[in-house]
Amino acid sequence: MTSMTTASPGLRRDWFTASSARGLREASAFSYEEYVCRAMERVAGDTELEEDQQQIELDLARIGDSVAQYLLHEHDVEHTESKYVDAVRRVLMAYTLRNRRVGYIQGHADVLCFLLANTSTWCNEEEAFWIYACVIEEVFPDDFFARTPKLHGFHVDVKLLSELIAKRLMPHIPQLAAVDLSMITSLLACKWFVCLWVGELPTSLLVPVWEFMLCDADGTFLHLLLALHMVRLAADALAATGETDEPWDSSFLYKELLESCRALPDADFRALFDQASAVYNLSDEGVEDMRAAIRADSHFRAQEARVLMKTVHFDSTQLLRLHDEFLFARMYAKVCDRRRLRGVRRDFIDLLLSREFPMLNAELHRRISDHIPSDAIGNVSFFNLIQALSVLHYGTPKERASLLFSLVDRGERKRLTPTEMSELAELLCGLAISAATGAQVSWPAKPSATTTRRNSPLLHEHFLVQLKQISASNQSSKELTRDEWIQYVLRTPDLHQLVSDWGRFDKQMSPVSGRRHRTHRSKSSPSEQRLKNGEDAVQQIQMSEELQYLRSRAFSDEYGRMSPPKPKTVSLLSNRMKKKYNKLSQHSAFFLSASNDPQLEFRNQVYWCQCSIS
Question: InterPro entries under this entry (predicted)?
Fold first, then answer.
């Protein structure tokens, strides 16, 4: 069964198969049904979910027109509308749980009505859910619809659209100079971008727009290209009326733009896109570079810093410096594929962790790298990276204990199975030995560099016994909850000290310079030798005394005296990249304006720097 308002399925591709929606489903730890069940179970005690549910219910009461336009048929019986409303509710609640940074976007109940009408089988909730996830997580930047900073990526694109109109259209349509571009672009973006064109374009054009957005590589900047072209078509039509002597009124132009968009005649969308692409010369790489240039603006940097300062341990000066370093790394680092480059890639994160935390073993590096959130393409944003680095560098024992728990809690169930408890014990084991021996690893590390239960069975068994004792209170499941684990860490001196000290150990070899620093190493204790060699002791070793000895090794100076850890400056760049950063940051062209032509000015600088930095 197909909707009366959409194109025949034979004339278009299956969005679920042709887009990345299927890949998102296969990569997810939960199915759509599990997301629905978990959302309904957790909404009672979750403030964010409760607020999202209230807003969803308000919007569901107003989607009658969208249900009638996209979902209802002439032969549908009375009261069928409630069936579709329930389907929209389930999809929206499930996605609110999946993407907590975005939550529910006001007005997207109408978007789901359109999506449910365009799945391969009629009103397929699962397909609609994953297609919707593909749009939010892959087509748009991860902060485009974010709760905090509020719609940050959306405001970046609003600014970009305003600059594109001023640069590309105003020279040809001088009447645009008299209007308030910032106001008009903000209002248009709220209508066009937030609702993803649903309700603003005729359905005959809306379907191919969505198909292109989902299935084509250039769909990530289609909304900008289409908005730019709509403004030009409407402005050309107004200029052709001959009333060019009087200045244009901003509110009048805004109304004309909306009406002309909704009244567009049936047209070949591909021809329309090719025409717009030839006129405006936009590309995915150019758009991402222009977005990065806008994010370097003091207004956007300060906005993101204000939000981050509420949750991280960096001050405003550190955040602004790290933000500059992040943008530099994204623009000038050597990257094989720069398409959809909205942040830094995983290989950059791996190198950063091995450089900043050389004492942590390879298993911890791998798990921390995988734990830092990224978008569907693999980009890690500044917002997510800084939150992770804050905990790793300056986190409280409670924050670090929570992080360790999350590294093994794959299902985000807030409780660990016996297998996951064994993995947590293995991480603690590696943490203790890395602190004691000062062992450094390279990335990717060899298997022998990873501390496992095979080369430290006694210490692993000690931690595992502790975890099992905590979980013994759960007689039925024998599982360890997050709260039990955190409380145990906070009241157990050995574990409290272990999570407090991690990452603060003095480096004995700089991974960048390769120079070894000479330090006095006191004679190893017999217990430490057994830990290193993996030998199983016959008698019971007092593990609390052993861990105390390991801690003294980590924080003793070259004469064996206890000393506090040295203060450390956090940086995202290697020494070689810092030199290039310091040179380029002195020039005004370090971050170019978004209105500059990325094809002519920007790319040459990027390629030159990429060849100079390894």
Answer: EF-hand-dom_pair (IPR011992), Rab-GAP-TBC_dom (IPR000195), Rab-GAP_TBC_sf (IPR035969), Rab_GAP_TBC_domain (IPR050302)
Evaluate whether 197 touches 112 at the Cβ level (below 8 Å).
no
Distances (CA, A) of 251 to 258, 389, 446, 591: 11, 46, 64, 34
The whole model's pTM is what?
A: 0.82
Alpha-helical runs (H) found in 222-268:
222-239, 250-262
Residue with structure tokens 């057994």?
A: 530
Signed CA dihedral, 256, 257, 259, 260: sign only: positive
Eight-class DSSP state of 516: B
For residue 207, what are the contacts with CB-CB under 8 A and spacing of at least 6? 6, 7, 12, 118
Phi, psi of 480 (to 5 degrees): -105, 120
CA gap 168, 184 in Å, rounded: 16
Taking only the tens place, the pLDDT of each residue in 64-93 is 999 999 998 766 666 678 889 999 999 999
Other residues' Cβ atoms within 10 Å of the Cβ of residue 247 = 10
**Measured distance CA(418)–CA(523) in Å, rounded:** 37
Tens-digit pLDDT profile for residues 223-242: 999 999 999 988 888 887 76
- Alpha carbon distance 68, 374 (integer Å): 37
Give the Cα separation of 284 and 326 in Å (integer).
Answer: 20
CB 288 within 8 A of CB 342: yes
| pLDDT profile of the chain (614 residues), mean per 10 | 40 86 93 94 86 96 92 71 92 96 95 94 94 96 93 96 94 88 94 95 92 91 94 86 70 90 81 84 90 92 93 93 93 75 92 88 90 91 95 93 93 87 90 67 41 64 87 75 92 88 51 38 45 42 49 48 58 91 70 47 36 32
Residue keyed to tokens 């728990």: 405
DSSP 261-311: HHTPPP--HHHHHHHHHHHH---HHHHHHHHHHHHTSHHHHHHHHHHHTTT
Distances (CA, A) of 317 to 26, 269, 320, 331, 566: 42, 48, 5, 21, 20
